[in-house]
Write a structure and sequence with these properties.
The chain is α+β, with helices and mostly antiparallel strands. The chain has 7 helices and 6 strands.
């Protein structure tokens, strides 16, 4: 093999070697700023969803813990549109007297627990009616059957429990999946590693 052939072979080999400094050759590719910003705002939306769920759950639970009030899941549409299925009414217990029309009460019946509005008083017993019903309830409510008066309405927070009770498993599964996905995505809004503007923050504090 002559000298010319050797030189050409060396030139060809050197062209295939990464001659960049090791620090540059081994660094991962920096994600595009626009992609990082989109990811951040998706995480922000997911965080808002998780925060809303947490806030609603606290509204349903805290009065029960601190004030001994009772939460009741609404399962029918008899009180729509003021109270819809899946809403939770938090009840202040044992208001059995001095109640007037317009008050929402939760009371016991032979068919279970009902939450309706008082529309009148008949000889010490209460006439009740669901807002969506055309006629008042057929039975009068005795004062000792009243569990309490509705004080806090927490919208929609009881829907997962209602889906479970009614066997609506596809919707419940979809909601659980979406909630876990939101929890996972929310990290893009709170983890500094995913900050799309780190250089700007460093410049501001530098």
């Amino acid at each position: 093999m002559d000298d010319q052939t050797v030189r050409e072979d060396l030139i060809q080999r050197s062209s295939t070697v990464d001659l960049r400094p090791p620090s540059e050759a081994t660094l991962p590719a920096v994600p595009d700023r626009r992609d990082a910003e989109v990811r951040f705002f998706i995480g922000l939306a997911a965080l808002a969803y998780v925060a809303t769920l947490t806030w609603l759950a606290l509204w349903a639970v805290v009065p029960s813990v601190l004030l001994r009030w009772q939460p009741f899941l609404i399962t029918s549409g008899s009180m729509a549109p003021a109270i819809d299925p899946g809403d939770v009414v938090v009840v202040q217990p044992k208001f059995a007297s001095g109640l007037g029309p317009g008050t929402v009460i939760t009371f016991e019946t032979t068919d279970g627990v009902v939450t309706h509005r008082i529309v009148g008083v008949d000889q010490g017993r209460y006439v009740t009616k669901g807002d969506a019903n055309r006629a008042p309830d057929s039975s009068r409510v005795e004062p000792d059957k009243i569990i309490g008066v509705g004080r806090v309405l927490v919208p929609l927070v009881g829907l997962p429990k209602l889906w479970q009770q009614t066997g609506n498993w596809p919707v419940l599964t979809l909601w659980l999946t979406a909630t876990f996905l939101a929890l996972w995505l929310s990290r893009y809004a709170v983890d500094p590693r995913f900050d799309p503007w780190p250089d700007q923050r460093l410049a501001r504090h530098g």
